[in-house]
Amino acid sequence: MSDKQERLLGYLSQAEGWVTAAELSEQLGVSTRSVRSYVTTIKASAAPLEVLASSTSGYRLNRDVYSAFVASRRAGGAEVETPKERIYHLLRRLAEAPEGVNVYALASSMFVSESTIESDLRKLRPSLDESSLALDRTGDTVRITGSEYNLRRLLSRMFRDEGAQGFLELASIEREFQSSDLRGFKTDLIAMLDSHGYFVNEYGINNVLLHVAIAVDRKSKSQLPADGATAEGELRADYAVEDVAPELAALVERRFGVVLGPTDLDNLALLLTTRVITRGVVEVGIDPASGRRIDRELASIRRIVERVSEEYLVDLDDEEFIVRLALHVSNLIARAQGKSYSRNPMTRSIKTSYPMIYELAVFIASEIQRHETIVINDDEISYIALHVGSYLERQSRREQRVTCAIVCPNYYDMHLILRERLEAVLGAELQVDIVITRTDVDWNELQADLVLTTISSASFADNVVVIQPFLTEGDVEVIRRAVGRVRRQRRRIRLKEDLLLFFDESLFLRNVSASSEVDMIRILGERMIASGVIDEAYVDGAIERELMSSTAFTDNLAVPHAMAMTASRTAICIAVNETPMPWGENRVNVVALIAFSANDRTTFQAIFDQFVSVFADRNDVKQLVSRATDFPSLIEEIVRGIDR
Q1: Are 523 and 514 in contact (CB under 8 A)?
Q2: Distance of alpha carbon 343 from alpha carbon 393, whole angstroms
Q3: pLDDT at residue number 49
Q4: Are residues 437 and 413 part of one domain?
Q5: Tens of pLDDT along 594-625?
Q6: Are residues 116 and 182 in the same domain?
Q7: What is the mean pLDDT of the chain?
């Protein structure tokens, strides 16, 4: 299968229902005829299994059948087919032959032509160069030169890239490196770390286990002396914990029958320290894992937290949060300096579901990046977002409770029992303002958001809910739905008022052609400059922000913006295009350049997530793109999206 065919399968795997050939052609940037050709090829390769279903509605992936097809290929040792897989396995072959491999022998063993191998070698060179490795060629013999450590690191990175997105699966590591006992090793490793008082980051531990599997595989095949591996430019020795290395060595020997040398063990200890383990803070300014002082990182995070407060009016000034983030940043800096980043399988979902939190993380990362002269990628930004999001979740005040009035005629203490029951079950959602124990109620005088009554009401208002005197589970569900309805109405009213203030008919464009993300930002920016909203510096800031991390927060929408809120007023310049354009790893139909003024910082926080959510469903976006032919219809479609 080609890269485009892989992308087609990936897109169908994310779709809930049928996807038309036209939609697939837009996403892949090819003709519908090419889409049909890709489908035919995929079906033929999977026959007799029906991995794809076709109908007049389009195409749909039969997920269970496709999973069985992939599993059967793996179990049967099927030859590699995708370009990405082939290049990775080419690296494996070269890594296992330090003396070199004949090009023709490679082509024969991988069941491809010599020209395909030559093409794959050219594609492999950039990855080798990036890892400080080289491809040496003498006649028809090629070999990899460079340090063993860098080769292992490249094997790890390419294996992760070659695999499916998401959590790195132990089964796939075991299958690739023939490490049948990796799951048991993980269990023993977690128990050992737990005995030393460490907390384990499950997001990162499988990546370390991948390094373990590679180290064991390389050592068992005696490709190069393990002690010759050097972490050139990598992590300093004072980052590593010292209390786990002896037990780690014994654990590897017991589980895999391999004795790792000091350098391998040091590297694994460094990986554990910077990716997997943490321990409760014993003393401020001290990394409890390695004993290293982190005063510099603490000072930097305190400065950044002040800037976050100034720019976004978000209060992160909490000592526990600052210390935890400083510990994380300390290890992040070490990883970035060695270009050995941690993979985060939740990056895409965090970015799509919590764009405002991700934006705060981008701002924090940009400050760290500038101060430390390092590069921080999307995976590392999403780890910062996890820190920020978890803190805000703990500290945030819950959405203001809905006020209610209880109407329950007096009979002994029945109204008291009802109130106690309501507060016990729904106290986090309801605030009881008044309890009326009379039957002659003036319903129009009740000012609460909800009226909960045990008697039939003469009012047909939406906020009146009839319940039983002795609250039932059914009553609780009805009240919860009513609370949700009130909150949605509040949110919609507030959001409509705020959002529609920022649109201007002169800032609406349709079917705008742009050669790149930067070109589109400049086109929209020029329109906003002409309207007196922003200046050239803001456009440059939006481009700088875009180059740091793609602002395609969904598959359909890009929201470029600068991190500085220097606009004269808050405004949105929006382009709606029938033909999607490439934007990072996505293809988007809608691009909204947002310019915020300092006076609207709180509004920015309130509407950003909601604005992005309007464009989260591709069917809704498809409808918006087809119907929003002018400014009034655009506003109508956005409001409809908010009301859903």
Answers
A1: yes
A2: 23
A3: 84
A4: yes
A5: 998 888 777 766 677 777 887 877 778 888 99
A6: no
A7: 83
Across the range 307-322, mean pLDDT stands at 87
Instruction: Determine the Cα–Cα distance for residues 220 and 239; give it in Å rounded to an integer.
Output: 28
Handedness of CA 578, 579, 583, 586 (dihedral sign): positive
| Residue 130 φ/ψ region, left for φ over 0, alpha for ψ in the -120 to 50 degree band, beta for the rest | alpha
Cross-strand partners of 143? 136
Write out the DSSP string of 233-275: TS--GGGS-SSSHHHHHHHHHHHHS----HHHHHHHHHHIIII
Burial of 549 (0-12, 13-18, 19+ CB in 10 A): buried
Which residue, among 153, 131, 132, 134, has the nearest Cα to 145 in the 3D structure? 134
d(CA 567, CA 565) in angstroms, rounded, equals 6
Domain boundary (75, 102, 120) is at 75
DSSP tag of 411? S
| For residue 262, cis peptide bond before it (omega within 30 degrees of 0) | no
Place of tokens 């203030």: 501
Dist CA 427 CA 493 (whole Å): 25
Alpha carbon separation from 403 to 69, 265, 446 (Å, rounded): 55, 60, 11
Tokens, residue 273: 């320290």
The residue out of 12, 43, 75 marking a domain boundary is 75
Q: Which two tokens stand for residue 177?
A: 């490196």
Domain holding 574, by residue range, is 502-643
pTM exceeds 0.90, yes or no: no
Query: Any idea what the CATH number is for the domain that residue 633 is in?
Result: 3.40.930.10
- DSSP-derived letter for residue 443 is G
Ranges 52-56, 82-86, 130-134, 161-165: which has the least confidence: 161-165
Q: Are strands 199-200 and 141-145 parallel, antiparallel or unpaired?
A: unpaired
> What was the pLDDT predicted at 75?
55
Q: Is 6 helix (H, G, I), strand (E, B) or coil?
A: helix
39 and 100 share a domain? no
C-alpha span between 7 and 582 (Å, rounded): 14
Listed residue (459, 453, 471, 472) closest to 404, CA to CA: 453
Strand partners, 523: none
Element spanning 201, H or E: none
Tell me how far apart the alpha carbons of residues 363 and 530 are, in angstroms, rounded to a whole number. Answer: 28
Sheet of strand 141-145: strand arrangement: 101-102, 141-145, 134-138
Distance CA 477, CA 485 (A): 12
Strands (E), 279-384: none
In a domain, 370, yes or no: yes
Residue 155 lies in a domain: no
Question: 223 falls in which pLDDT band (50, 70, 90)?
Answer: low
Cβ proximity of 292 and 215 under 8 Å: no
Q: Judge contact between 535 and 513, C-beta under 8 A.
A: no
Q: Is 94 helix (H, G, I), strand (E, B) or coil?
A: helix
With vertex at residue 232, the alpha carbon angle to CA 230 and CA 236, rounded to the nearest 5 degrees, is 95
Helices in 313-346 by DSSP H: which ranges? 319-337
Closest CA to 390 of 541, 201, 213: 201
Supply 97's token pair: 């032959």
Taking only the tens place, the pLDDT of each residue in 178-220 is 776 788 899 999 888 888 878 787 777 888 888 888 888 888 8
What's the rounded Cα separation, in Å, for the pair 577 and 573? 13
Asked if residue 87 is part of any domain, the answer here is: yes
Q: Could you tell me if residue 374 is inside a domain? A: yes
The answer on 70 and 135 residing in a single domain is no
Contact between 592 and 553 (Cβ < 8 Å): no
Using the predicted structure, report yes or no on whether residue 40 has a pLDDT greater than 50: yes
